[in-house]
Amino acid sequence: METKISEKVINRLTLYHCILTDYLASNQEFISSKQIAQLLNIDDSQVRKDISMLNNSGKGRVGYIVKELKMSIEKTLGFKKTKNAFIIGAGNLGTALANYDNFTNYGLNIVALFDNDTRKIGKTVNNKLILDIAKLDNLTKKTGVDIAILTVPRQYAQSIADRLVKANIKYIWNFTPSVLSVPEGVQVWNENLMGNFLQFTYNI
Amino acid sequence: METKISEKVINRLTLYHCILTDYLASNQEFISSKQIAQLLNIDDSQVRKDISMLNNSGKGRVGYIVKELKMSIEKTLGFKKTKNAFIIGAGNLGTALANYDNFTNYGLNIVALFDNDTRKIGKTVNNKLILDIAKLDNLTKKTGVDIAILTVPRQYAQSIADRLVKANIKYIWNFTPSVLSVPEGVQVWNENLMGNFLQFTYNI
What we know:
By secondary structure, chain A is α/β, with parallel strands linked by helices. Chain A has two domains: about 5-75, Winged helix-like DNA-binding domain superfamily/Winged helix DNA-binding domain (Arc Repressor Mutant, subunit A), CATH 1.10.10.10; about 85-195, NAD(P)-binding Rossmann-like Domain (Rossmann fold, 3-Layer(aba) Sandwich), CATH 3.40.50.720. The first copy, chain A, is about 40% helix and about 20% strand. In chain A, about 45% of the residues are buried.
């Protein structure tokens, strides 16, 4: 697959994948673009166009073959190319994300969590160790992990981000409501929850 | 403010708001479009254009006045128009969201949580009661709350969504990795975390 896939298409393809996973779980063999479109409240021509970008769309006589379409999305989006990440902050959100088993299906492997709370350090969440944040530097060097999922309280966000940068983290998935200042070469994805909520409810 | 604001602009304005909150917290009075643009890795002409949509941009001699620009965003996006919501599922994610004090700054008020776990029912999270899911119907009628934040495990997502629809919930903010089937008149916002992650890391 050499074509560049836009962010919007990636987003939709992962939603199709969620639907296919549900279909598979309920033993449904086929799915139509219309069925997908209806669930997402979008146009079915859009669904067909997105799917046509996949190498093998799994098009059968009576719709797409669920299993094949699902595998095709996984291959195209690189779900099998495991990406290792650390979770920084073992609070409720960090714990929720560490427990989110769906991540592994998408190639995201949580290697460990980090915190500075001595009551948490040494414990496990979903079989992943909570480590002392002081050891982060060492661990990124040893493991080569360069993705961090940031779930610390707002007031620590920037100082911890500085620490991540020093430890050679290159990608920060930011769940805090703070916009981080990072040097060039480090990428931040702001999981802007309130922005999403306001987009959703703006017209209520 | 009569102009329709696009979802993308809403999203960016909330990010500007995060930055302004941080600036205010560190007692900085002024901010330039360049400073905002740099933090978000976008063009500063974009920032100026977005801000020009606000009724009062708080433009001063040496940049925008942080306090005024912040208030202006709040007014335009209706942060003061409180929206009441229930959280369905008092697990780690539901608890994390109930603890997310930032919500109230954006006009999102969590009225209560619901769960079916008798060990959780009756307890509180961040001063909000965890109630029996069996009482949902009654409570939506009494309170008029029509927004639900869905954080239950994947396998219960659809059956709980059916229940929410029956209880007259009109807006579902869906944090589960399941795509919900709902009747017309009910809106779902899929918080597609894995889609976001893959957009972020696709080129790694």
